[in-house]
Write a structure and sequence with these properties.
- There is one protein chain.
- With 76 residues, the protein is mainly alpha-helical.
- It has three helices and two strands; from the N terminus they run ααββα.
Length: 76
């Protein structure tokens, strides 16, 4: 996950907690069972990550998330 994904997770969790007041174990179970969004920093094979970022800001966030990895980037 990228830092931006964690921010989204925190905001969504806070909203759910405020609106629904779920048992925290249920919230933890829902979060741990979430596999991510197709095409958003999605690991499709060992060492192969796909992201459908299409704006300069989105691409920058993905590259920042993966900056400590060896990268081969394909745009198209």
């Amino acid at each position: 996950l990228g830092l931006f994904n964690l921010y989204n997770l925190l905001v969504a969790s806070a909203c759910v907690n405020e609106l629904v007041k779920p048992d925290l174990k249920d919230l933890e179970k829902a979060i741990s069972g979430f596999g991510g969004v197709c095409g958003r920093v999605e690991q499709v094979a060992k060492g192969v990550i796909v992201d459908f970022a299409h704006t300069p800001d989105g691409i920058e966030k993905v590259l920042d998330t993966l900056k400590n990895k060896k990268l081969i980037v394909v745009f198209g």
